[in-house]
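Go through the following before class.
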Amino acid sequence: MNNNLFKYIGLVREGFVFVDKNDKKTIFSKCRKELIEDFRLDKNEFVNQWFTIAYFETKPLNQSDSSGNVFIISDMKLLKENFVPN
């Protein structure tokens, strides 16, 4: 499992879009239902907020899929308001 800081950007068809402190975009295609509800990720209420996210990175089930790895959120915690990473 990986852990990193991410800023929430919003929801797109492929999943939940976050960027890290280097502005590298990651799209998480799966997330636990209670996390989606707790942080209202489907409503964009926490856009531009920073989170600590524990996640898994796996290969796609379809081996012919060349779109890259699949990112799955396992747990996340909201960082204090106005947080800015170093």
Notes: The first helix runs from residue 33 to 38. DSSP finds one helix and five strands in the chain. The CA atoms of residues 57 and 71 lie 5 Å apart.
